[in-house]
Amino acid sequence: MGGEGRLPLFETKEAKGRIAYRLFSISIFVGICLIWVYRVTHVPGGGVGRWAWLGMLGAELWFGFYWILTQTVRWRPVYRYTFKERLSQRYKDDLPGVDIFVCTADPTIEPPMLVVNTVLSLIAYDYPSDKLAIYLSDDGGSDLTFYALLEASHFAKDWIPFCKKFKVDPRSPSAYFAQASEPLDFHYKEEWSTKKKLYQEMEDRIQSVVKLGRVNEEIQAEHKGFSEWNSVLNSRNHQTILQILIDGRDPNAVDNAGFVMPTLVYLSREKRPQHHHNFKAGALNALIRVSSEISNGPIILNVDCDMFSNNAETVRDALCFFMDEDKGPEIGFVQYPQRFMNITENDFYANSFRVISKVELSGMDGYGGPLYIGSGCFFRRESLSGKKYIKGYKTDWKKRAQRHGSETVDELEERGKVLASCSYELGTQWGKEMGLKYGCLAEDVTTGLAIHSRGWKSIYFEPTRDAFMGLAPTTLLQSLGQHKRWVEGHLHIFFSRHCSFIQGHGKIKLPLQMAYCIYNLWALNALPTLYYVVISPLCLLHAIPLFPEITSPWIMPFCYVIIAKYTHSLAEHLWHGETLKAWWNDQRIWLYRKTSAYLFGTIDCALSLLGITKSAFTITVKIADDDLSKRYEQEIMEFGTTSPMFIILATLAMINLLCLGGAIKRVVLDDGVGVESLVLQFAQCGLWVLINLPIYEGLFLRKDKGRMPPSLAFTSTALAVLASVIPMH
Ligand SMILES: O=c1ccn([C@@H]2O[C@H](COP(=O)(O)OP(=O)(O)O[C@H]3O[C@H](CO)[C@@H](O)[C@H](O)[C@H]3O)[C@@H](O)[C@H]2O)c(=O)[nH]1
Ligand SMILES: [Mn+2]
What we know:
By secondary structure, this protein is α/β, with parallel strands linked by helices. The protein has helices at residues 18-41, 47-75, 84-90, 112-123, 143-166, 173-179, 186-212, 217-220, 279-294, 314-322, 354-365, 381-385, 397-401, 409-419, 443-453, 476-494, 500-503, 510-520, 526-541, 555-575, 580-609, 626-633, 644-669, 679-691, 693-701, 710-725, and strands at 10-14, 78-82, 98-104, 132-138, 241-246, 263-268, 299-304, 308-309, 331-335, 339-340, 377-380, 457-460, 468-470. Helices cover 52% and strands 9% of the residues. Strands 5-6-4-3-7-11-9-12 form an eight-stranded mixed beta sheet, sandwiched between helices. The protein has a three-stranded mixed beta sheet with strand order 8-13-10. The radius of gyration is 28 Å and the shape is globular. Uridine-5'-diphosphate-glucose (UPG) binds at residues 103-105, 110, 137, 139, 279-280, 283, 304-305, 374-375, 441-442, 444, 482, 485-486, 489, 617, 619-620.
C-alpha cells in the first residue's frame, strides 16, 4: 500500500527464473575466459598464422567484453502493471493536461494521409477532450500537410464521438477500416457506414490535392492559414507558421455530439539557410515552448508521424505511473515499445525489435529505466525542460488542470510564433541543458540519458494491447541506412561528454551505464565481425588453423559458448513469439548490419568527430511502390542498386563461397593437410554460405528489378578472387 493507505496505481514484478539464468550466464562467462586463456597460451610461432591468431584474440576479447555488457540487461528485468480503475476513481476530475507532439518532415516520404491518420488516432484518445492538445510539427513546411490537417480537424467532429460511443480501437481511421468488418448491430452499422463514407471522401479530397501538388484558390479561401504560404520560399527557408486549428478554450468548438474538442495546432517553425535547424530535436524544442503558451500540459507525449495510437487507453496507463503518490514523483518518462504494422511473417529484415525491446528495455528498467527511443514516450514536462529531480518533489496536478486565458487565437499565435523563430534559441540553454539535446543523430538517447542523470527514473511499459504502431523500412538498404544513422549517433555519444560512464557517473547505477553502452558501442562490432568473416575463411582456404583440433579438450569451451549462446538466443526469440525462420533472418541481418552499416557508421562518426564532415539526419522512407511491396511481402531480399553497402555484403558472401569451395576441393584431392584442425572453420564458413543464400540468388539467379545489379556480380567476384590469391605463407 502507498502512503496514506492508498493503493498504488502500478505494480512491479521481477522476472522469474533469474537464478537459473545467472548460473547459465556464469557458465558462458567461464567458457569465454577459457577461450581467452587458450588464445593467449597457444599463439603460433611465426608467419602469417601468428598475426591471424592475434587478430582472433583481439576479436574474441571484444566479443567477450561486449557479451558481458549485454548481460547487465538480462540480470534483473522487471515488468510493470497498471491499475487504471484506481486512477479513474481517484482523479476523476483532476486528470492533468496532456500535450501530444507529432513530428513530420517531408510530405513525399511521409504522406499527409499517413500523418493525419496518426493525428486522428491521438485526438480521439479515451481521455477528457478539454485536457488534450495535439501539436503537429511540420518540418516540411508543406501546405499539403496543412490542408490535410485542416480536413482532419473537420472530420474529427464526427470521428471523436463515434470512437467514444462504440469504444473503437485502433482510432486511426485507416487502420480501423482496414481491419474491422462491417458490424452486425443495426444502429452501429449505420453510423459505421456513414463514418466510413465521410473518411473516404476526406481521403479522396486530400489525395487529389496531393496528386496535384498544390492547394487551389478555392480551398485556400477556406482558411486564413493558407495565405502564409505566399511568403514561403521553400521548406528550408520560411517564416514560422503557427495555426491553432481547434481552440480547446472556445466553448463553441464542439464535436457533433456537443462535447468540447481537443486543441489542435499546426506548427512549422522558422527555417533559414544560415541557421542550423537541428532536425527533430529542434522541432521538438520549438513545440515544447509553443505548447507551454497554448495548453501547457504537465505531461507530454511524443510520437513520430507514422506511429498511430493502437490503444485508446494509453494515456491513462501512462498516468498510472506519473500520478502514483508513492513512486510516481521521481518518474521522468514512460517509454512504450515501438511496434510496426508492416512486419512480414518471418520479420525478414529483423525490424520488429521485439526481443530487444522485451528483453533489454525491461532489463534496463530494473536499474533505473529504459532509454528514450524517440517515439511513443510520455514525459513529465519538467523533466524534459531541464529540471532536476529533488527528493520530496511533487507535481501539483490540480493546479495545472484548469486552462484559462483571455487572449484571442490571433494574439496567442503571434506570441507563439516568436518562440519558434530561428533566433529565439541563440544564447540560450535550449539544446544543451533544456529540452532535447542537439548535435547528435540519436537525439533521443542523449536526451534520455540527460534526464536520467538529472535524477529522474524512467519506466518501460508494454501493455497487452500494443500502444503504438508505426512503419518499419521495407528494403534492405533503407533498413541498413536507418541503422547507420543510429550507430553513428550512438558512437558519437560514447566519444562525447554524454558518454554514460562520464555523464552518468555517480548519478545512475553502473549496470545502467553499461546498458547504455550496449547501444553506444554497437558500431564498433563492425571491425571484429569483419575480421572474423574475412580472415577465418581465408585461413581455411590456406589451411591455417585458427581453432583447436577437434580432438583437443580446448575445443570444448568454443563449442559450449557457441552452442549455449545461440541456443539461448533462439529460445529468447521463440519465447517472445517469433518463428524459427525469423530468428534465422535475425542472425543474417545482424551480420549484414555489422559488416556494412556499422562500418560506415564508424567511419562517418570518426569523420564527424574530426570535424571533417557534419552528420545529417536522413529520414526513413514510409512509402513503397507496388512492385517493391510485393517483393517485401514475399520476403524476397531487395537490392536493386550498386550501394557501397551491397558491394561489401556481396564481396563477403563471395569470399566465403570461394574459400569453402577451395577448401573442400583440397580435402577431396587429399593434399595431406589434416582436417581435424579446421573443423570449426569449415562449420563457420559453411554457415556463412548458408546464411548468404539470398545474396547468391540476388547476384546470379534472379531476374527481377530487385536483384543485385550485374556489375556487382562482377565486382564482388573479382574482389573475392583477389582476396583468395593473396599468398598467406
Ligand atoms: O529534420 C527532421 C528530421 C526528422 N523529423 C521527424 O523525426 C521523426 C523520426 O524520423 P524517422 O526517419 O522516422 O526516424 P526512425 O528511422 O524511425 O528513427 C528512430 O530514431 C530516431 C533517432 O535517430 C528517433 O528520432 C526516432 O523517433 C526513432 O523512431 C519523423 O517523424 C520525422 O518526420 C523531423 O521532424 N525533422
Ligand atoms: Mn520512424
